[in-house]
Amino acid sequence: MNRDRGLKSIKEARQDRVSRKFGRPTGTAAIVVVVGLLLVLLGNYLWTERKLDAKREAVLSQQRAALATLGAEWFPLRDRIEGIVMANANDYLGDQTATEATTWDFRAIPGIYLRLRTADAQNVKDLRTAGGESRRDGFTACLLRTQSAEDMDAGQSEDRPWNLRQAYMSTRVLTDEWTHEVKTAGDEMRVRVFEEQYDKAKREEIPVAVDIVKRAQFFLLVLDEDTAEARADQDGGPLTLQALELYSHASRVILFNLNTNKLEMRLRRTPQTKFYLAGENRALPQESRDAMVRQVNNCGLATDVKRALKMK
Q1: pTM of the entire structure?
Q2: DSSP readout, 23-47?
């Protein structure tokens, strides 16, 4: 029979010390642990935010440098062009042609082009949204080129005049909206995306915008008026410019001299064109037929402008 050695009281005291040393932590110890973890997390958060702020600031400092150079030239031109658009998008102000417009060979010089529905030009926000989706079309192909323009509906025309969409896209990194997106970027990966956007704009897009700003001598604007027939055929959906071009409708054409800040021409025309399919063309898919209809209507409008300006 085994017997415990030593006094019982000494043994119990020893066991009590061991249980206190390795037993459950006291309330004070738990608080110390929690506070320590919170301090570690807070320190990590502050370090991450400081690192993220530095990356954001690096991107925005480059943007500010571009604002001081390109922005000083682009924003005044943009505001002037947008003012011309909105001034002509409400009640029509009547036909007007300057005497020198018939002898001004604007087709041989660099310029800016924009086409959109009058409904999309009632305020700056809608104008910029629609302008960012604008494209070249058969109107400029037939008006500004002497050779055949059968492929222009597909947007394959020469790179003149520059579309205002190009300027909007090229200078997006200079806008307040882009600045806000950078400032509110929540993680390093998102900031890296903005770094790549700015690098691409600086390398490829901003040089184009600089060229547009410095070389453009005229602004050619076409504002298309909606028709009840075109709206009815959309089955309740939104009416787009591309859909409107399939119908006979009135268009306002404005030619503005950016060098003299003078209106050279303003006219409103509804082209009287007819489109027929013959022979093998009757088997064309609907998309191809629509492209041909737009081409005929747009060239009809260009013909009316040429006639007004006495162009050959």
Answers
A1: 0.76
A2: SSPPHHHHHHHHHHHHHHHHHHHHH
